[in-house]
Amino acid sequence: MECKWRPQTRPSTQRRPSQPPTQSPMTDVSPGGPGSAGQQAPHAVDEVFDYASFMWEGGDFWQQVSPEMGSNVGLNTHIMGTDAQLRFPNMVAPAPVTYGTPAMRSNGSAADKPVVNLTGDKLMEFFATSANPPILEEVETQKKWVLMRQTVVDMAKHSRMLHCAILAFSAILVGRRDRSLVVSEENHYESAVARVVEYDQQSLVEHSSERECLLAALFFLAYVDILEMKLDAGHSHLQRAYKIFQRCDKKSFGALEKQILLWLRLLDGKAVSAGGDGLFLSKADELFLVEASPGSFDGGDTDDLSRQEPAEGDIEDVLFQVLYQPGVVFYQKVQSFMGRISKIDPWHRSRGTVEDETEVMNIGASIATDLRNLYDHRPPLMDFAVAGKLQQPHVSAHLAFVITRAFRTYLSNYYASKVHLHRVAYKTLPLTKEAIDALDNIRRLVRQMVNEMDTEDSLPINMLWPLLMLGAEEQDMGERAWIKETILRMERVAGNARITAQVLEEVQARQDTAKARMDIRSVMLTVFNACFAIV
Asked: Which parts form a coiled-coil structure per UniProt (predicted)?
C-alpha cells in the first residue's frame, strides 16, 4: 500500500537558471537574502533590475511558501447580480480571503486539493524572503526592499502588532495566489487592528520604536484593505497614519519612518481614486516627504541601518538610484495631482450648481497650470529615457531598460492626470487640444513599452490608471480591443486587471449609449456593488 495524500510535486518550469535544483522552497531568491543584503548572487544584477520577476507570477517567488501551491491565478468568486451581467456573463470580482478550516471555505475546487495550513512562522518566513510588492515596483529597487524588509522583520520580533500585520499581509497574498489554502486558523488581521486601536489615544510625538512599528503596521494593513476592497478600513488606517504624521514634529522622523510614509503616500494615491481623502497628497506634505526625502533608505540615519562595505555589482545599484531618483520625485508629485483632482469630483464636494461648476473650473484651471509647470521642471534625463536614447556605452543594457520603463510609466501617469482633470472638471465639454495630446502621448508610450516587452512580460502595475483613462476616451473599436487586451495581459501583476477591463467595457458601452461621459466610480458601484482602487 502506498499513501497518496500528498502528491509528489514537480519542479517549477519558471525557476531562474541561477537557482540550484536542490534549493529549499523557502530559500531567498532576492539578492543578498534576508539576512545579508550586501551579498550578491551570481545574477544579482538581473535580480535587482528585472522588474518582471517582482510580480505575482507562478514561478519562484510564490513557490517559496509551499510546493503544493497551484498555478491557477484565477479568482473564482461571485458578485451580486446586475443588468451589466447580461453584457459580462463571466464577470468576476475579487473577494476577501477567509480564515478558518476547509469546511468554512466555499471554494468548490478546494475539495480536490491537498490542504496546506500555513502557520504564523511559515507566513513570516514567506515575507522574509518576499520580492518587491507590486505597488512599489517602479519606485523602489529590489535591493532597497531587501534592506527595508530585513529591518521590518527585526522590528516585528519586538512588536506583536507589526508581527500580526505582516502575517495578515502575507496571508492575503498567499491566499490570492491559491484559494484552496487554509492560510491560518488565527485572524492575524483582526489581531493587528486591535493592537493598532490601542494607540489611538497616544500622541507619539517623539521618535520611538513604537511609532516606527505603528506606521509600518498601518502600511501593511492599508495595503491589505486596498487589495481586499475594504476601502472604509483602508481609509481609516491611512487617516491614522496621517494623524501621526500631522501632530508630530517633522524633525523627529528618521529615514525609516520617512520611507514608510512615502509608501503610505503611494497607497493614498491609489485609494483616492476609490473615494479616499488623499490626506498625504497635499502640496505642503509633498514638500516634506518628496523634496526632502533621502535618495535611498541606506543613505539615512546610521542608527536605522549601518552602511556596508561596497560589494561587487553595487556600483550598478548606486547608479540606478542616482539616475532614477529624480523620476521618482516627479512621479510622487504626479500623485499629488491625483489627490487635488479627486477632491473636486462629485464624491468629494458638491457639484451641479452654477456656483459649484464655476468654482470647479477655476480650480481646474489652476491645476492645469501647475501640471504644465511640473512638466517644465521634469528631470533632464526623462526626455532621453522616454525616447529610448539610453544606450551603451553610456549605461548598461539593464540600467537602460529599467530606467526607460520607469520614466515612461511616470510620464504616462502625468498625462493620465490631464485626462482625469478634464473628465472631472469639464465632464460635459469636448476634449481640449491639451487633453487630446495627452491621450496621444499615453497611447504612444504604451505602444513603445509593449513593443519592447518579451512575449511573457506585461506592463507595470502603475500603467493600469493611464490605460483606464485612455480607454475611457477611446472611440475607435480596434484601439479599444487593443487596450482591453493590454490590460488583461497585466493579470499576473495586477490582481484586478480583469475587473478593470470589465468596468472599462461597461463605461464605454454606457458612454456610447448616452453620448456623454460616465463617472467610473459610479459604474463600479452599479456593476460590482463595490468600489476598488486601480492597483
From this structure: none
